[in-house]
User: Fold this.
Amino acid sequence: MSSESVSTTRVRFAETDKFGYAYHGAYFAWFEVGRTDWLRARGMTYVDLMARDIHLPVVCTEAKFLRPVNYDDALEIHTTLATVSGVRLRFDYDLRREADDQVLTRAHTEHASVDGSGRLKRFPEDIMRLLK
Assistant:
């Protein structure tokens, strides 16, 4: 199985500012699409993880906006799991325009594995196998 997943979306009008460019906050919803698709391709969903009392809050993020994203652009979200440890994950994202395959944004999110009360919780072995 490839370590990368590719998701698609189209920039909606509600995700843009008055100049027609994508609002920076919208990017993080697109990254979540990439992340959930990456997990789904490995047989996991957030609902499955939560049923096992595993939650993945974002604890750190960074985005480099290289080129503007415009209303109605068809986008590809290239997502990879960059690192995994017993209690942390880091996903990397390349956001590309489908029309020309240009990298528009490079970003990452880091997640802690916690239980329902917010305490760190190690990934069980079966989940670690799916992640690697």
